[in-house]
Amino acid sequence: MDRIPILKLGAALIVTIQVDMHDRLALALEEDLTAMIARTGAKGVLIEISALEIVDSFIGRMLVSIAAVSRVLDAETVVAGMRPAVAITLVELGLELTGIRTALNVERGMALIQSRLSEEDDGFGSDRDGLKD
Hints:
It is built from four helices and five strands. It has 133 residues and is α/β, with parallel strands linked by helices.
């Protein structure tokens, strides 16, 4: 079975989906990303989907699941490059991308992740006393 490569860039992981996703590939991606976040301590996950022409309800739910698992592991998920037809399909399917930030392109997506990392470096959002600032 093919795997989707996951690249590490600083404290972020980058996934560029260049093939149409099928269910097994989506499940493998979720598993691989989870393991990589745990292993590297990544704080951000950028999933670039501009090559995806079709997203069905299963793939949409997998994106939400990936974001939920990432959050539990203290990483933020950003989906970049969503085509208008894909966005329309997700809305028509009634899928809300809960916990997923979106960006028009990779550059803007990385900026969202970098802003989170900067906030953490500045001490905002830390829980040094067990309480959020």
